């Protein structure tokens, strides 16, 4: 039994997509919902039926459902086998749940914009103009238990032959924009560069200003060892 919310004139809808940011968005949404003392709903959309989802996607959904109960969300909504545009589904759900605020991550927005070929923010504002939209950017931190990195700063990757060079000034030659986390105790630009590629967040290794490959480096602690 969930605690009865006082402010039913407000409602929060968190839109998540597969990847590590889903949990962060749910927790962020939970904090905001508690501040407003209003209902919290969590939504994810997939074009495939649930029973056709691969193991990774099924794992995410199971994890999100568990977290939804943990934060006392008022509902976890999976819209599977959905052929309509994602923004239409979000707008419909927002109306049904009387949501006044919508939260989505930068990677979620980027992933769905690849499908719609248009800004999902603009499309949603046309559908539901009186709802507040919150786009949560890539965080300026890395969950590293050893705290070996300085606070992240805005940086860019520029293509250089078969590699990428880390730079701190935006030019038209820039291939990727992101956040650079420099290792403590080094005079060179060694560390981690956090970027969005094909709608997914990647953390790639930087060695003396150079990134040789856009391969994700796992910097997060093993969740199975947190208990």
Task: Give structural notes.
Helix 3 (86-96) crosses helix 5. Residues 220-227 have low confidence and may be disordered. It contains five helices and eleven strands, in the order E-H-E-H-E-H-E-H-H-E-E-E-E-E-E-E. The protein has two domains: 12-136, HUPs (Rossmann fold), CATH 3.40.50; 153-211, no CATH class. With 227 residues, it is an alpha/beta fold. The longest helix is centred in the N-terminal third of the chain and has 16 residues, at 21-36. One of its GO terms (molecular function) is phosphorelay sensor kinase activity. This is Histidine kinase.
Secondary-structure class: alpha/beta
Helical residue percent band = 25-40%
Going by CATH, what is the homologous superfamily of the largest domain?
A: HUPs
| Count of helical regions | 5
CATH-defined architecture of the largest domain: 3-Layer(aba) Sandwich
How does the overall form come out from the CA principal axes? elongated
Number of strands: 11
The major sheet is characterized as: 6 strands, antiparallel
Q: How many domains would you count in the coordinates?
A: 2
Element-by-element helix/strand order: EHEHEHEHHEEEEEEE
Alpha carbon gyration radius: 19 Å
Sequence stretches where pLDDT stays below 50 over 5 or more residues: 220-227
- The CATH class of the largest domain is Alpha Beta
CATH topology of the largest domain: Rossmann fold
Distance between the termini: 26 Å
Protein name: Histidine kinase
Organism: Desulfitobacterium hafniense (strain Y51)
GO molecular function, one term: phosphorelay sensor kinase activity
InterPro entries: Histidine_kinase_KdpD (IPR052023), Rossmann-like_a/b/a_fold (IPR014729)
